Amino acid sequence: MQLTASQVAEFERNGYLVLPHFISDSDCIALRDHAAALEDQLRSDLDHVTVFSAGDQAHGDDSWFLTSGDKTRGFFEDDGSSLNKIGHAMHDLDPVFNRFSRDLGFAEVAHSIGFDDPRLVQSMYIFKHPGVGGEVTWHTDHTFLWTQPRSVVGFWVAIDDATVTNGCLWAIPGGHKIPVKSRFVRDGDSTVTHVFDDTPYPIEQAVSIEAKRGTLVLLDGALPHWSDINTSEHPRQAYTLHVVEGAADWDESNWLQRPTMEFQGFS
Ligand code: FE2
Q1: Can you tell me whether residue 66 is helix, strand or coil?
Q2: CA of residue 73 to ligand 1 center, whole Å
Q3: Which of 35, 58, 65, 263 qualifies as a FRET site for 93, CA 20 to 30 Å off?
Q4: Which residues surround ligand 1, an ion (CB under 5 A)?
Q5: Distance of CA 114 from the midpoint of ligand 1 (Å)
Q6: Mapping DSSP to helix (H, G, I), strand (E, B) and coil, where does residue 55 land?
Q7: Domains present along the chain, CATH in parentheses
């Protein structure tokens, strides 16, 4: 699907774009079923209980996280038994995720918003289970997936209906024009966050991005976004792909490195 000129203009103005009905319910449910089976497998691998806490970046000191750029791995919630997410290379390693990532129209969207040589750098299946799904604090994706020049765009797909009560995305319209305030980098076997500007984002301007199953939300890499804990009884599963420009310089201090494989495109 090619975007219209007005959709591209809206993305450039707001830093995000919501595209309802982008993915069919049946494709979403098939991915959800596959992720559930994968979750069962990964949860049984309790030798590797790594808590993913986007609030305090605790995962940054853990080699399970730092070496996951070319793997399919599970990351737990604080309770140590529910999965927070699966990451970060299912789009290349798993046939079901590969098809979902490459055959359902994302490439045309990427070209519409200006990519010449889009490269898929990261996939995440986010569970945000009822009652335990954690908060993802305000951040920009460029902080974590740094290229020179900046190029990362997030492709976020609602696998369940996302609402304000089960932890939908929130974003600051136009916030991608605020200079990125920090950078998360690899530091040996650990990571460190360099803060350039510690002033808070104007979150009073934030809007909720409620999204029905199958909605695609595009997120500019410099757009501040957030999602709350899921205190509801309803799941809020989502799939995200992060795409960068092939000609942009992928910094060797990014946490995500893929010693065993190159970043591939959509085809
Ligand atoms: Fe993000």
Answers
A1: helix
A2: 18
A3: 58
A4: 141
A5: 20
A6: coil
A7: 5-250 (2.60.120.620)
- State the amino acid at position 250 in one-letter form: W
Cis upstream peptide for 139 (omega within 30°): no
Q: What is the per-residue pLDDT across 183-213, written as a single tens digit (0 to 9) for each?
A: 999 998 899 999 999 999 999 999 999 999 9
SS3 category, 38: helix
pLDDT tens readout for residues 49-66: 555 555 445 554 578 889
What's the predicted TM-score (pTM) here?
Answer: 0.94
Return d(Cα 128, Cα 231) in angstroms, integer: 10
Residue entry with tokens 């909605």 = 215
Please, which residues have CB within 8 angstroms of residue 36's CB and are 6 or more apart in sequence?
Answer: none
- CA atoms of 146 and 151, how far apart (whole Å): 8
What confidence category does residue 80 fall into, taking pLDDT thresholds of 50, 70 and 90?
Answer: confident
